[in-house]
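Thread amino acids onto this structure.
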């Protein structure tokens, strides 16, 4: 069991548009795991939640003890902390799944400015742009 730190980002080229996610995970025996995935045509908030979901699923498979997530999405961070109620039908199920998975370990999430989340952002953009080629 390990303690993980994840930087997550999701983005779309247009809103909605071609979308990708980027996840950077640290804490696995000194290794850094980088994930970039195409997720189809989505809006930005859906992409942000899918990136968080990817980090949570990875942490569950690794039997993590703790997971701290950094995201530049204030909507996702505040909804996951319970500061905002998730009323959007398109986000509700993603929020519910993420909250359920987050109970699998000691989970925390913090907002980070976009300029401090560049690696995850670059992975998300790369995943979205690769599909356009």
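Threaded sequence (133 positions):
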């Amino acid at each position: 069991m390990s303690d993980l730190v994840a930087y997550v980002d999701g983005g779309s080229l247009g809103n909605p548009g071609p979308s990708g996610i980027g996840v950077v995970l640290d804490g696995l025996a000194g290794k850094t795991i980088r994930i970039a995935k195409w997720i189809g045509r989505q809006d930005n908030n859906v992409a942000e939640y899918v990136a968080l979901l990817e980090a949570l699923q990875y942490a569950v498979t690794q039997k993590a003890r703790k997971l701290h997530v950094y995201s530049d999405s204030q909507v996702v961070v505040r909804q996951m902390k319970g500061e905002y109620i998730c009323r959007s039908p398109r986000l509700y199920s993603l929020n519910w799944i993420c909250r359920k998975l987050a109970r699998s370990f000691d989970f925390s999430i913090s907002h980070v400015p976009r300029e401090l989340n560049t690696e995850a952002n670059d992975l998300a953009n790369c995943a979205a742009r690769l599909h356009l080629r």
